Amino acid sequence: MVKKRLNFTADPWLFGICGTLVFLGVIMLASVSASFSLERYGTTFYFLNHQILFGLLPGLLLGGILFFLPRETIRALSIPAFLFSLFLCLMVFIPFVGIEAGGAHRWIHVGGFTFQPSELLKLGFILYLAAWLSAKIKKSKKKPEPDSAKTKNLATSFLTAGDGSLVSFLLIMGGIGAILIAQPDVGTLGVIWIIGGIMYFTAHTPLWHTITLALAALGSLISLIHIAPYRLSRLAVFLDPSLDPLGQGYHVKQALIGIGSGGIVGAGLGLSAQKFGLLPEPMSDSIFAVIAEETGFIGACFLVLLFAALCWRVMVLAQRMEDRFAKIACIGIVSWLCVQAFINMGAITGILPLTGIPLPFVSYGGSALLTEILGLGILLNLTKR
Fold this sequence. Notes:
Blueprint: H1 12-41, H2 46-68, H3 71-76, H4 78-91, E1 98-101, E2 104-110, E3 113-115, H5 117-142, H6 147-152, H7 154-159, E4 160-161, E5 164-165, H8 166-182, H9 186-202, H10 207-227, H11 230-239, H12 248-261, H13 287-320, H14 324-348, H15 366-382
Antiparallel strand pairs: 1-2, 2-3, 4-5
């Protein structure tokens, strides 16, 4: 008699895509940062070493642990992870712990290590929302509502649906929004709002809930513009870069010059000219423009196709899943990574307004890379066959 064994190996296609993204991110950062490291620290590997020591290595270690954890354990850790990330986001306002830079409180410094808690908040929010929505779906299926009760509770059904509570979701988003606006980190808030909307919609909630969320997001955006008028100027410059040719318009113009200078095959790794004092933030927000200049149209398209392949493969695997938590969590994680990549590349190419959102796996920042690899570890775990 042959015993059947469960296959706990990761999906090979998804594993290959994730590994390629992480590997290319390290290679491209090494190419972009070498000259800056040599100029400031006398070595070409300072920024690369920092990215590896504080982002890649701990990410691989912790991501590997998450990969082997039982699915039930990951679900049980969703609420503590979310609360812990919120707690860290509040610590940025504590003196001698939080770090202020450019009028923003976004970092904490403990034991010689600097961390941006809002990066971890993205992952914690995704896991919590997946657990919450899957529990709502399970509860609604166990207790179907009779027709008589439906007609009797029309007022209640306007606020709460069987698949999930719209009011509760808005309260959660309101709490997160208050913390991030106080920092301020509106870019992260926008990413979290988009991720939450996608997850909420894929949980088979009523369509009018999604429409309500979209209107609430629009109203919040208008309010934020009214509070800080500089956000309106960003939108105006996006529509007409000539309004601020030495500011935000300059940023986009130099990025487009770099992308165009790359041609089809690029100038070669490390040979970008725009990154030397012409292009703002070449290692973080604008790194896609440097990649396009050094690797050309072919390299830029390959990176875009990698994110598209990541989205496609996860959606294919999620469609086959019966576990609601795993399905919603996988959709949330891949939405986070791909939406953030699209926003970054869209802003640099002039398709979207500038937001300061980093490019996943590529932009310099240990906090972001660490959290993104943790997300990949969970993603590979939940998609095991």
